[in-house]
TrEMBL record:
CDD domains in UniProt: DPBB_RlpA-like
Principal subcellular localisation of the protein: membrane
PROSITE patterns: PROKAR_LIPOPROTEIN, SPOR
Annotated stretches, region: Disordered: 40-69
EC numbers on record: 4.2.2.-
Bilayer disposition of the protein: Lipid-anchor
Record's protein name: Endolytic peptidoglycan transglycosylase RlpA
Residue ranges, compositional bias (Basic and acidic residues): 50-63
Coiled-coil residues: none
Pfam families: DPBB_1, SPOR
Domain SPOR: 196-272
């Protein structure tokens, strides 16, 4: 009987010890998972650095990241559809900002949020995107890199970093009416391939004159100088001297700039 009591008492103690370990482990897990939210409300940094000299984001081509660009996602019971491209996006709405509560934590595309950088969060723009944000109250503007999702309030269009909000002079008000304009940078490889496939013919209109002899002479000189074919288009008594055809727009544009610098400032491009 005594042995049975000792066994049960020992088993009871072991049970309570195991239970305490589980509670401690769960507490640790809970602490880790809630660490991001140890601040109940967002705030500006305690020791405010000088962010007046923080440069705008520098737009460049970046492929859209795999993270944060699912076709759609749901937050607080509402589903949002992510745009395939930011090209041509332009919208006016309310901007808010986010700071210390999220500083150092991951953004929706897996980067680290830095409230001292020129960044932003948007509900539907593909990540990353670049956009010019203009405060319509004071006409101040910044260029930001959108790399996060939010703000999840129906009345708000975009969430700006602390630095961006500072530059737009909207920290005191908390929100501001802004214009958002995406700066779309096309994939250079895609642009080059598209240009190679184009069937457009490009000409550089050099000069027009009623003096046919002058146009003929200049035609021979320019053809020899630039190693490009020429053609003369007649409209009534006016003769137009053009260089071309040139298959690639970039080459035609470069030739056009060269001609403008070499004494033909009135020249312009013609596409057929």
């Amino acid at each position: 009987m005594l042995n049975s009591y000792r066994f049960n008492h020992k088993k009871h103690c072991l049970y309570h010890a195991s239970l305490m370990v589980c509670i401690l482990l769960l507490g640790a897990c809970s602490s880790n998972s809630d660490r991001r939210y140890k601040m109940s409300d967002d705030a500006a940094p305690t020791h405010t650095p000088d962010v007046t000299k923080v440069e705008d984001a520098h737009p460049r081509f970046e492929p859209y990241s795999r993270g944060g660009n699912s076709k759609s996602y749901t937050v607080r019971g509402k589903t949002y559809s992510v745009l395939d491209t930011g090209k041509g996006y332009q919208k006016t709405g309310v901007a808010s900002w986010y700071g210390a509560k999220f500083h150092g934590h991951l953004t929706s595309n897996g980067e680290t949020y830095d409230m001292y950088s020129m960044s932003a969060a948007h509900k539907t723009l593909p990540l990353p995107s670049y956009a010019r944000i203009t405060n319509l109250t004071n006409n101040k503007s910044v260029i930001v890199r959108v790399n996060d999702r939010g703000p999840f309030h129906d009345e708000r269009l975009i969430d700006l970093s602390y630095a961006a909000a500072h530059r737009l002079d909207m920290l005191k008000t908390g929100t501001a009416k802004v214009k958002v304009e995406v700066i779309y940078i096309e994939n250079p490889e895609s642009a080059a391939l598209a240009e190679l496939k184009t069937t457009d013919l490009h000409y550089v209109q050099v000069v027009a004159s009623s003096d046919k002899r002058r146009i003929d002479k200049l035609s021979g000189q320019l053809a020899s100088q630039y190693q490009v074919k020429t053609r003369i288009q007649q409209t009534g008594d006016l003769y137009k001297l053009q260089l071309g055809p040139i298959g690639r727009q970039q080459i035609a544009a470069e030739l056009h700039q060269t001609l403008r610098q070499n004494g033909f400032p009135q020249s312009y491009l013609v596409v057929e």
